[in-house]
Amino acid sequence: MPKKAAARSVRDSIASVSLTTRVIERDRIASGSLKSPVVICGFVGPGLAGLTAVGYVIDHLGLHEIAHVMSHFIPPSVVFIGGRIRHPFRVYKNAPGDLAVVICEVPIDRVGLYDISAKLLDWFTRFDPREIVVLDGVPIRELPEDRPTFYVADEDRQADLKSLGFVPAESVLISGTAGSILSECLVRKIHCISLLTPASITLVDPGAPLSLIRALNSAYKLNIATKALEQDVATIHEELNEIAKQYQKVQEQASAPAETPLTPKTMYG
């Protein structure tokens, strides 16, 4: 097959698949009650920080599912949460309609990122979103001693975020679903920011979503209780401290000089 024909065939195949990407509303009346919402997004990423944080927001604010995204680019799967089988890519809202949360619990095929982001923002544009907020983690290996909240935002938003104690990200590449959403927001001139925090990719790290929840509380006055996450953080630190003490003890025993065995000469002179 000639190269041009082959390229055209690939484009046609992608185009035909993209027609199947759509946002399916569970309740059109509930969806229609969105009123210039702040839209908080969390996806699979470093340490699952963003994903865990938005799940916590959904649970603790009692949000209701109003839609899900269907696409051939999303692996065929379901999640079982709260005694119900659900689609992995879902949209939630609060009762007043001024807050929406987007969560996707599976990785998305890179080829489909643009199409899914475009379809999702097509849908949200109907409700004139106030701001799109993408939560994510900055990958590190160990648990950090200091946990700042970094931000990526336009100049007109930076002063507000700095006043909250957030730190500008000096150099960061946001890719995957999170990066695709932000890129599409820029094209459409929709206000968007990303909040990021260091997240361990080798250890259980509840401190990462806790940091993001606190950032959301500061920026959007969500008043989400964080006691459960704080307890998780305390428990993890206690366990790690105990492991460190045991390791130190083993190291001390290993480095102690061996006792000189007794011989007849040392016994009797």
Structure report:
This protein has one domain: PAC-like subunit (Rossmann fold, 3-Layer(aba) Sandwich), CATH 3.40.50. It is built from nine helices and eleven strands. Strand 6 and strand 7 form a beta hairpin. Helix 3 packs across helix 7 and helix 4 packs across helix 6.
Characteristic key phrases:
Rossmann fold; 9-stranded mixed beta sheet; two-stranded antiparallel ribbon; 22% strand; alpha/beta; 269 residues; globular
Topology:
Elements: H1 3-18, E1 22-25, H2 28-32, E2 38-42, H3 49-61, E3 64-70, E4 79-81, E5 84-86, E6 89-93, E7 99-104, H4 113-125, E8 131-140, E9 150-153, H5 155-163, E10 167-168, H6 176-188, E11 192-200, H7 207-220, H8 227-255, H9 264-268
Parallel strand pairs: 2-7, 2-8, 8-11, 9-10
Antiparallel strand pairs: 1-3, 3-6, 4-5, 6-7, 9-11
Helix pairs in contact: 3-7, 4-6
